[in-house]
Amino acid sequence: MALCGYDAPVLVLSALWLAAPVIAGGLLHVFAIRLNLLPSLAALPLDGGATCRGRRVFGDNKTVRGVVLMLLFTIVCALAQAWPIERFAWAQELTLPGMRVVPPWQWGALLGAGYILGELPNSFIKRQLEIAPGAPGRGRSAPFFWVLDQTDSLIGTVVAMAFVWTPPVAVLIALFAVTLVVHPMVAGIMVMLGLKNRVG
């Protein structure tokens, strides 16, 4: 089976490989929260407590710690990913062109920044609609917000990648599909660790 000229299984694996620094960075972030690393930064909300129309801009769940750790972890994971890319044929075959446009640490920083920034508009909209942090959408908006919750960070990451490389449509489709599977799995881990109340 092929998709836009790509072999489907290879395309999915390449999408996973492309997203690997963000996925691994997100998992490390989950465990950092569980271990309560950098608690002083966790107490600093990104919006500084600011409000818009009497409602918080982002809320307490978006913190300085999250920004610092996600950037750090995605950079470290991108650097780790570069090691097999330089040495093994299988990694080179899965590596898409954009992953070599800039040095690995810059690639990791770009992915991490995109991940972080992608979540902020969703948080802002939810706060303005008085949807609590971590809570699902209500009524007819519930399906929309479920999809947005799964893909907001992907959208931000793709926009960030576009500064150095624009992924082909087939890669974007594969990334979307991978995200709809991986994101709920990470949320499930957070639920098991007591960091979230629900998956999705």
Using the CA coordinates, give the radius of gyration. 17 Å
> How much helix is in the residues?
55-70%
On the 0 to 100 scale, the average pLDDT is 90
Alpha-beta classification: mainly alpha
Question: How many separate domains?
Answer: 1
Task: Give the beta-strand count.
Answer: 4
- Count up the helices: 7
The percentage of residues in β strands lies in: under 5%
Strand order of the largest sheet: 1-2
Global geometry: globular
What is the H/E order?
EEHHEEHHHHH
Which spans of ≥5 residues are poorly predicted at pLDDT below 50?
none
Major sheet details: 2 strands, antiparallel
How far is the N terminus from the C terminus? Answer: 30 Å
Short description:
By secondary structure, the protein is mostly helical. The protein is built from 7 helices and 4 strands.
